[in-house]
Amino acid sequence: MIAETKPSSLSRINHLKPARMTAEAALSVSVPFAKSSSQPSATHTTSPVSDSSQPKFSWQIQGMDCPSCAGKLEKAILAVRGVESATVTFATEKLFVTGDSDTLMGDVESAAKATGFPLIRPSQGKAAETGNWIQTYGMLTLTAVMIFVSYLISLKSESFGLAAFTATTLVGLVPIARKAFQLAKRGSPFSIETLMSVAALGALYLGETAEAAMVLLLFLLGEQLEGYASARARSGVKALMALVPETARRVEANGELKEVPADQLRPGDIIEVAPGARLPADAVLQDPTASFDESAMTGESLPVERLAGDTVLAGSLSVEHLVRLKVTSEPGENAIDRILHLIENAEASKAPIERFIDRFSRWYTPAMILLAALIVLIPTVIFGQSWDEWLYKGLTLLLIACPCALVISTPAAITSGLAAAARRGALIKGGAALEQLGQAEVIAFDKTGTLTQGKPQVTDIVAWEGTESELLAQSAAVEMGSLHPLANAVIERASQHGVKVPQAELRKALPGRGVQGQVGGKVIQLLAPDRLDRQIVLTTVQQQAVDQLSDAGKTLVVVLRDGQPVGLIAWRDNLREDAKQAVQRLKSMGVNSLMLTGDNPRAATAIAFEVGMDFRAGLLPEDKVREVAQWSQNHRVAMVGDGINDAPAMKMAHVGVAMGSGTDVALETADAALTHNRLSELPEMILLSRKTLANIRQNISLALGLKLIFLVTTLLGWTGLWLAVLADSGATALVTVNALRLLRFKPESSETDVSG
Question: d(Cα 379, Cα 132) in Å, to the nearest integer?
Answer without folding.
Answer: 45
